[in-house]
């Protein structure tokens, strides 16, 4: 259900369950978690096979869960999203077609979200009496702001690629999202990793400044060697 291929400095991870619009059950989430943990390339590119990026959680499994199992399922999805967010390299989501619920949450965990003109996004959980529990309630307002996050999550409305671009949900709209991953793979891998670590560092300003100086000095030393 998750296919991994390596092309130079790009690790391509494909959600390969097109008959279910790449909806993720527990087995698929574990496969994705394992694939991310085993990857080491400077750039990770996440995509979906077929007409959708990812329809989110597999509702057939979700509807059969009791409270304890539901909590465990949410924790698994959170681990996957956290693994994408903390991957030691750049993570690009190439969204072509529908991203719904958990699919939006996985994209939010990526560093850069790139959409094709055909991409659409929706936090549809509210229409099912649910909500996204793979870290979306914290990442969505951080990415698009509280107002847009509340609008999307409370209404469950669908937005197209251009609307997603305007609100900051995606960084670019292009016919070829994979080209963005290749663009990142062409830069220095050590610098790419160092920049991500610094930008993702949520420590206090003084500690962040110290770590920034240390990382910069290490890169300069590498240039001299």
TrEMBL record:
InterPro entries: ClpP/crotonase-like_dom_sf (IPR029045), Enoyl-CoA_hyd/isom_CS (IPR018376), Enoyl-CoA_hydra/iso (IPR001753). It comes from the Archaea. Signal peptide: none annotated. PANTHER family: ENOYL-COA HYDRATASE (PTHR43802), IP11341P-RELATED (PTHR43802:SF1). Belongs to the enoyl-CoA hydratase/isomerase family. This is Enoyl-CoA hydratase/isomerase family protein. It comes from Haloarcula onubensis.
């Amino acid at each position: 259900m998750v296919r991994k291929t390596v092309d130079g400095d790009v690790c391509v991870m494909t959600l390969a369950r097109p008959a279910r619009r790449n909806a993720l059950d527990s087995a698929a989430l574990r496969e994705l978690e394992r694939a991310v943990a085993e990857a080491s390339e400077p750039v990770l590119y996440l995509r979906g096979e077929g007409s959708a990026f990812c329809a989110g959680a597999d509702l057939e499994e979700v509807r059969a869960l009791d409270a304890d199992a539901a909590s465990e399922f949410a924790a698994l999805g959170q681990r996957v999203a956290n693994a994408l967010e903390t991957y030691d390299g750049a993570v690009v989501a190439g969204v072509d077609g529908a991203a719904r619920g958990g699919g939006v949450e996985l994209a939010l965990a990526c560093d850069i979200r790139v959409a094709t003109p055909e991409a659409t996004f929706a936090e549809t959980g509210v229409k099912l009496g649910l909500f996204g529990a793979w870290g979306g309630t914290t990442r969505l307002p951080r990415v698009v702001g509280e107002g847009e996050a509340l609008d999307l999550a409370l209404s469950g409305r669908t937005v197209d690629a251009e609307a997603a671009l305007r609100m900051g949900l995606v960084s670019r709209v292009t016919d070829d999202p994979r080209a963005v991953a290749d663009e990142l793979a062409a830069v220095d891998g050590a610098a790419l990793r160092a920049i991500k670590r610094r930008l993702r560092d949520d420590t206090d300003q003084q500690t962040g400044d110290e770590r920034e100086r240390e990382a910069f000095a290490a890169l300069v030393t590498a240039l001299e060697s």
